[in-house]
Amino acid sequence: MTGDLKQQLLEFLREHKVLTLAVDGPYAAALFYAVDSDLNLYVVTDPKTRHGQALGGKVAGTIQRDQQCWQEICGVQFTGQCVRLTGAERVAGWAMFLKRFALAGIEELAPAFAKVELWKITPDWLRLVDNRQGFGHKAEWTRQD
């Protein structure tokens, strides 16, 4: 990965599709996600699930490459605020999510999509861990709003 840290994070996040989200002390769930150019993460879940009921407010999570040996460990840790999307922001978020996963127009998914909500996680802190740059290499990014 090259460039500044935000660009490195964006490239990493676009290369992967599943995050592990920690909510409601101790509980975690794996979710597909989409990412925008501001490093916001968009996830979809049924509000009746344990993690769906706990969303809203502060969350934490990780995203990592699969099947890594220790010399190549590479991943992201994050914390941020999670909100359920409505209105125009929901429409835009769904379009991005469906495009990323090529799900638009798949009729058999319509009943499942009718049960889920779209959430946006706005990370306030991300840490890139990348042993390819040296054992224990970490670089941190904090949102400057």
Characterization of the model:
- With 145 residues, the chain is of the alpha+beta class.
- It has one domain: Electron Transport, Fmn-binding Protein, Chain A (Pnp Oxidase, Chain A).
- Helix content is 23%, strand content 39%.
- The chain is built from four helices and seven strands.
- The chain has helices at 5-15, 50-54, 87-100, 110-113, and strands at residues 18-22, 28-35, 41-45, 57-64, 74-84, 117-130, 138-142.
- The chain has a six-stranded antiparallel barrel.
- Strand 1 (18-22) and strand 2 (28-35) form a beta hairpin.
- The radius of gyration is 16 Å and the shape is globular.
Strand order of the largest sheet: 1-2-3-6-5-4
Number of domains: 1
| Sheet/helix structural class | alpha+beta
CATH top level assignment: Mainly Beta
What percentage of amino acids are in beta strands?
A: 35-45%
CATH arch. level architecture:
Roll
Mean pLDDT: 89
Shape: globular
List the helices and strands and how they pair.
Blueprint: H1 5-15, E1 18-22, E2 28-35, E3 41-45, H2 50-54, E4 57-64, E5 74-84, H3 87-100, H4 110-113, E6 117-130, E7 138-142
Antiparallel strand pairs: 1-2, 1-4, 2-3, 3-6, 4-5, 5-6, 6-7
Summarize the structure.
With 145 residues, this protein is α+β, with helices and mostly antiparallel strands.
